[in-house]
Specification:
single chain; mainly beta; 4-stranded antiparallel beta sheet; 0% helix; globular
């Protein structure tokens, strides 16, 4: 049974940093691409960043240069390093794994406010 658990969310001031973690179980993480999405109330989930099994990364224009996605297959974790955060980064952040089907975690809330 594949499970994804996000952690690391919280309150951060504008300009600050935060690192989100996605812990994966039930599957060999090295075999699967993973993405981070975010969602605010009343909107659709927005793709933030993707990391392929090769380590290739892709970012939404709104976070490129500020966020970094990475993976540690040995620890079965995927990270989202968020730097220079802005109030508009406030959202629930979800990780998604592309396996035989799509698997989602339950999300972690990030609030950017002074």
């Amino acid at each position: 049974q594949v499970q994804l658990v996000e952690s690391g969310g919280g309150l951060v001031q504008p300009g600050g940093s935060l690192r989100l973690s996605c812990t994966v179980s039930g599957i060999d993480l090295s075999m699967a691409p993973v993405a981070w999405y975010r969602q605010t109330t009343g909107t659709q989930r927005e793709l933030v960043a993707t990391i392929l099994t090769t380590g290739t990364t892709r970012y939404a224009g709104s976070v490129r240069g500020r966020f970094t996605i990475s993976r540690d297959n040995a620890k079965s974790k995927v990270y989202l390093e968020m730097n220079s955060v802005k109030p508009e980064d406030t959202a629930a952040y979800f990780c998604k794994l592309y396996g035989d089907t799509e698997y989602w975690g339950n999300g972690t809330l990030v609030t950017v406010s002074s």
